[in-house]
Amino acid sequence: MRGSEVETPAVRRLLAGAAAALVVLVSGCTSPASPEPRATPSPALRLDASVAQFRFDEGTRNLKAGVTNNGERSIRVSSATISWDGFAFPTVPPPDPDAEPGQTVAFTIAYGAPRCDRPPVGKPTLVAVVDGRGVRLPLRVEDPQLLDRLHAKACAQQRLSSVADVSLAWGRTPVRVDGALQLPGTLLVRHRRATPVTVVDLGGSVLLDLRTRRDGLLPLTTTRTRAVPVLIGSANRCDPHALGQSSQTFLLSAYVRLAGRPTQRVILKPAPAEQARIQDVLDRSCGVS
């Protein structure tokens, strides 16, 4: 053998060490990196939106709406409104915006001016900010005809208001009429233009009887401002159930008709001070101290 081919023990040990180092180096370069931990995705939102009008809100513009959390995590509803072609609605902040699974974020929302130039189109939706993001939800109306009915009434009231204003004003001192205690008042029809308005009838409530001061004053058709004397007193429902359960005691009614239009109900709710005087008459008539 030539001298260049001679392997001494020292050379063999040097070559073996270099090979081992190469294996370690290659192994380190080709080993897969440790996987990054993945973030757990948030459970999907599962929401149900609904609206209704409770009996004690009849005669007002107030509706009760809510967003129910049917998902698996808590939510926050920071604002909400209703989008529908028939009414303008404000955006409102719910008073208690947080809901755990199974709970409802409830709020009161009052409808605004009606759009009466054409029939409403499309279905209502609820537009809300949930957990900082805008969402649009189908709106379940508990009474399917509620919004259409309210829209028809609001447009009828708008037409009437363009012609005349119908109101009730109440006196301060009760009187006795045929032995019954009554509070006198005035039904006033103030005309804005000379279009005929007919006051067909009056209506009280479960506890209150509202009538003209004498027979024969209604129906009344007029094209100018007119005042009709009226009386209000007990409807002789003095049982504890009626007195304790009445929720619309002060929703009084005038039934009015414009030429060529159906008769419409105009709700006339006394001011708080007037309610107190009417309540005093009712209490005295029923012997309630």
The global form is: flat
Total count of helical runs of at least 4 residues: 4
Q: Quick one: CATH class of the largest domain?
A: Mainly Beta
Rg, alpha carbons: 38 Å
Mind telling me which CATH architecture of the largest domain this is?
Sandwich
CATH fold naming of the largest domain:
Immunoglobulin-like
Number of strands: 16
Enumerate the strands of the largest sheet in spatial order, edge to edge or round the barrel. 4-3-6-7-1-2-5
SSE order = HEEEEEEEHEEEEEEEHEEH
Strand content: 35-45%
How many domain modules?
Answer: 2
Question: What structural class do the secondary elements suggest?
Answer: alpha+beta
**Helicity, as a percent range:** 10-25%
Biggest sheet record: 7 strands, mixed
Q: Quick check: average pLDDT? A: 88
- Determine the N-to-C terminus distance: 134 Å
Short description, anyone?
The chain has 4 helices and 16 strands.
Characterise the protein shown here:
The protein is of the alpha+beta class and 289 residues long. The protein has 2 domains: 47-144, Immunoglobulin-like (Sandwich); 159-286, Immunoglobulin-like (Sandwich). It is 21% helix and 36% strand. It has 4 helices and 16 strands. 20% of the residues are buried. Mean pLDDT is 88; it is low at 1-8 and 18-31.
Keywords:
single chain; 289 residues; Immunoglobulin-like; 2 domains; five-stranded antiparallel sheet; 21% helix; disordered N terminus
